[in-house]
């Protein structure tokens, strides 16, 4: 950084500039640069030696005590990072020496700084410059986490001269390509990074110094295992690798064996101790999960059809809290957010899921992060890993987590950095025993609590009203129903998630739907049992003794409305009984026609059947409309005997075809031979010419009459305007304002005039101002007729 001399005041006009000081500065400039380079080299060498020989003290707490550069210390201090967390004080002395690190610590413990500080220091000590290309690469599982890491990097690295870039999906690929080759540090998601490595010309990572894998277990769980393997094949083996995760799984261990060289294992629990491991009965080892110290966690048992009512009741009773609500699928998040917004709970509502556009996701993430007061964010597990939402007081898990690791990451969004927070999990009766056992196996004990059922406000009627009034709400509810059952069906732990035991009918009613769609992926045995029970009930109601076969059994094409607990049928029950709801048929058609077939294929069909008619003459034709019956008979008649014939009868009563052709020879003989036929043709042509002449005369007379009427109306208008304009004559008016009328001397000549055409061609056409519209067309027609008459 160059230093400026003392101020010399404003420049005086006419005063010659001083050239002597500039000459001296030019002579001293090379010497100054050389001294600065030598001094910088000396500082970097000394810093390198300090880092390699650094032995951390037992009470190491401050970043200022680490062997790091002054630029990094200033950036940390400017960002208010002064004291280190246990994972930082344990891992930084090792990673600053250039060794590979496999780190595990509880969520919210500050793992981001544990790998960003070494990234800056390694590149600084190796004198990395803009022309050296990519020096450090940070891979994150989600876009929001990548954005958060990039913001922290900009904050603590503001006094360094490195160029940093963010490469995530959802942005313009061409803009990223233009800047990619100039970046020293990249923060990226796996998919977009691999796309650039395969397609972007000039993007190389041959000189990579540091590779960081943040939330490595989540990267593998999201299906990026093959992508990550392809990325590692592009990177040089002579690099430093830092792998951090809140949970250590077998897949992470496998990844560490493939990507790390002699890594130093660093595991930090509650009291700065290593994470303990437990020996299982099947000789497998499992680690005990660490939770934040300030976390208060509970669970309650809630039936599936009461979850939304209990959630809405919780929001209404916590209007001053910042709450994060986790649901299992994107479509559930969208439905709950849209429906609750229409119900106006009195608190700002937001939603975040993986199917949103990148701009919307970033806007929601920023808005909820900066929200200092009360707010509710409905989200999927895309917000469960690594994201730091300041001030989150409550974390609600409306849908149970997939496993214990997911539970730990979800509740880790609160009680971060020695702050306090609360977590509440909703469990169905079929999930309670299995989920508690899975959590206890990993050392997580969750106490049980109860909700005040008498004060819970049920929202089924409000959702039914919304679904009937707004087709979008009903459509979103149908998709949410299917996506939830699909997520339960796809969970690996079948001891916890039992899709066959879910009360699907009551769940559909709780979403405001008139009935539950039929789910194909339920087991055939369970479906058969339910069908047999329905048949038995119907047979008992109808008074039949024997069982009805499947082919003869009645089919319910419509969901019947059920009375409420008091036995009273409401207006909404009658509404949903209607057979023809045209306003909703479009959304049913989307499901029937296979909307989003790539996602929901073979997972949903409505309770409707197409009745195939093998024999059209059977008794079942009575159920078909009369129009279809007539069409069927007409088709059969055509197939059997061809098209029908229409006959006409002559004067003698003989039948003939409607368009029967006469015999050519007989017709010529009947009309006097060839000469007679020719004479008849000439006579017919002469008659047609006479008709045309008569029509032409009538047309001319009509045109003349129209012209006279037009001229008369124009004269009347001129007289009226002359009277109103203070005595201005009609002649003067016509001279000033020409409306394109042709004077009478240019009218069509009479039929008796032989030299009319010669006079017409001899006189020059009058000058007039032409107008657009019907007047110009009429004048053109008139002139064409006059030219024709002249010939």
TrEMBL record:
Biased amino acid composition, Basic and acidic residues: 685-706
InterPro entries in UniProt: DEAD/DEAH_box_helicase_dom, Helicase_ATP-bd, Helicase_C-like, P-loop_NTPase, RNA-helicase_DEAD-box_CS, RNA_helicase_DEAD_Q_motif, SPB4-like_CTE
Catalytic activity as recorded in UniProt: ATP + H2O = ADP + phosphate + H(+)
Localization per record: Nucleus, Nucleolus
Compositionally biased spans, kind Acidic residues: 538-551, 748-757
Keywords carried by this UniProt record: ATP-binding, Helicase, Hydrolase, Nucleotide-binding, Ribosome biogenesis, RNA-binding, rRNA processing
Domain comment, as recorded: The Q motif is unique to and characteristic of the DEAD box family of RNA helicases and controls ATP binding and hydrolysis.
Protein name as it appears in the record: ATP-dependent RNA helicase
Organism (species): Mycena indigotica
Taxonomic lineage from the root: Eukaryota, Fungi, Dikarya, Basidiomycota, Agaricomycotina
